[in-house]
TrEMBL record:
This is Sulfotransferase family protein. It holds the Pfam family Sulfotransfer_2. Gene3D superfamilies: P-loop containing nucleotide triphosphate hydrolases. GO terms for molecular function: sulfotransferase activity. InterPro entries: P-loop_NTPase, Sulfotransferase. It comes from Thioclava pacifica DSM 10166.
Amino acid sequence: MSSDLSQSQRADWHRQSGGAVGRLRSLRERVLDRAIPQRFVFHHVPKCGGTSVGRALRKRCILSQGTVLPEASYRAFEAFMGQGDTERMLVDVLDLREQMLLYLMFADTRCISAHVRFSEAAYERFAEQYKFITILREPVSRFLSHYAWSHGRSGAHAEIREEFDAFLETPRAARLGASYVEFFSGLPKEADLRADSSIDKAITGLSRFAVVGRLDDQKGFTNAIRRELGLRVRIGHENRAGGARPGLRVSELSEAQLARVRALCAPDLAVWEAAP
């Protein structure tokens, strides 16, 4: 703007400029209301087919979409904290991801697809504007897929170094078997995820979701998305673990291994069986 303008001319310019910006914002909102009629959060539990779901949703909502990536959020947290305890930071980073979710919601992002826990703070503030959706997988299969994906994945923030039998005896394996409790209970990260009360909280949390899909019924899931969100999506197949690895299919586990995995997954099996 020219420095030669009088004060009144400057005021007129700002009023007209503000009016134009306001009209553009109003136009953008109308376009978004038509393209993305319902704001929503897709809670992406690892190894439940969520990468394919998230990608399909974000493509459909390209005008207003956001995500929270596990690798990038962990690296940001690691750089900020300057810590070296990987196992501790894998838990502590959960709070950062919840904060990132809240930021996206306060920014009025219409489509949010994120590796993030259900947030009581988000639900209390945004339940009237946003719907919450997720997709689940049979817990033993999910556990085995998670191990196969992470084992020996050098350089990844969540690499699992232990061989299968050794891993089953670790605290991380116990936490992995309670992933649904961690994601849907809304409890603090320090909570006992294997307690009956925590399992009940996760089941209650899922009852607040508009859509709870199952990986073995993608047609039902996409139909529910269309009904609840007004979106037609086509879900592909992403992030399949490369190559079948010995001992990681349920049919290939020994009786002792299967019993151990089922015991580890007992919290998630309870949520799976009770989920809507």
